[in-house]
Amino acid sequence: MQVTIIGSGYVGLVSGTCFADFGHEVVCVDKDSAKIEALNAGKIPIYEPGLDDLVATNVAAGRLSFTTELADAVASADAVFIAVGTPSRRGDGHADLSYVHAAAEEIAQSLSGYTIIVTKSTVPVGTGDEVERIVRDVAPQADFDVVSNPEFLREGAAIEDFKRPDRIVVGTTSERAQEVMAQLYRPLYLNRSPLLFTARRTAELIKYAANAFLAVKITFINEIADLCEQVGANVQDVARGIGLDNRIGSKFLHAGPGYGGSCFPKDTLALLKTAQDHDSPVRIVEATVAVNDNRKRAMGRKVISAMGGNARGKTVAVLGLTFKPNTDDMREAPSIAIVQTLQDAGARVRAYDPVGMDQARRVIENVDYAESAYGAIEGADAVVIVTEWDAFRALDLKRVKSLLKSPVFVDLRNIYPVDEVTRAGLEYTSIGRS
Ligand code: UDX
């Protein structure tokens, strides 16, 4: 099949490359000519493990190409995916749909033969209807269907998530469109990943409901962790004890410094806006957003109290800056609020991240960057693990102790056994394991 992807950002690039790997002919389009030039020169503009090899293989096989020319790519396509950004609109938290609408208009001008237009971008309920209206206005004679096909790709594991999904959600009631979608996803379908056909608005809501539910789950265990600290319980054992119940499930029960990233914060806010507009509040998500916002600075205060309540003039080594490991993404990373809180309290921050330091420099000011974890720790008054990169999981704790000026070790991801750290002579503070 001929597939065209509009928007060669994270979602578009991963989806396009994986579709090409399934054997389809894929053209990825982007307005940013520097990005397209880079891609054509074999340079991948984002950090995603395995993506560079997969792009190279499919480009070499002639199934994947990149262009700024939308018209030709749309005219020849069986399916056109809209994978442009939908950032939170400044001021009101609504998803900004201007890129989606602009893409719909441009696509409409070049449609030829029966084409399905698929929204992959995360869009509020009803956006598919709007896209259909726009296309119909511009091209009244065009033969097309608009489909919702939300993505559930985790950064750092996006290729795996695309190729081995728990489910594929397809929102359309058109049988012709369903057939094209089934063909596109045939390799997965054959592998028995369930293909769930729903109405379009339902598919749009599934995406928001899924992300909001996961955000609620994380926030729930974070608050239980706080309670564990007060009552002398262990949150990891609580998570295991409840997670083994199949109705609950063990995933997304890792207590930590609060969720961040490009999806959960933005999508929970957008869901709340939709709920507000329809006078149908989702209070549990309102509470989740508020609790998570407070939590990030609270983690900074936790570090300060581990240092005896005074951070003025002290140096804190921060290990890990990105919102999670295996990405260079700093969007809504808890590290931003944590560093800010430490700086507000008069501390100097020295940070190290295996991949994210270039991005971090753009969003966090007045931080010294070290060349390694030990480089950050040397001479510091405390060390705090903010992101659970593998590189921080097996630190030489004796060496950490000898490098630190005072033995304060804060682990906001619970990646060490308590006794191992205390045995090394460090004062250990973690999450929900008092
Ligand atoms: C998420 C969804 O998982 C994905 O399906 C969706 O389409 C996009 O958003 P992503 O943002 O890449 O993916 O990361 P994810 O692995 O889900 O983690 C999100 C945040 O939650 C991170 O800040 C992570 O540290 C935090 N988290 C996750 C926890 O604090 N505890 C957990 O148990 C799991």
Automatic annotation (TrEMBL):
The keyword NAD applies. It comes from the Bacteria. The active site is at 263 (nucleophile). Signal peptide: none annotated. GO terms for biological process: polysaccharide biosynthetic process; UDP-glucuronate biosynthetic process. Its EC number is 1.1.1.22. PANTHER family: UDP-GLUCOSE 6-DEHYDROGENASE TUAD. This is UDP-glucose 6-dehydrogenase. The lineage of its organism: Bacteria, Pseudomonadati, Pseudomonadota, Alphaproteobacteria, Sphingomonadales.
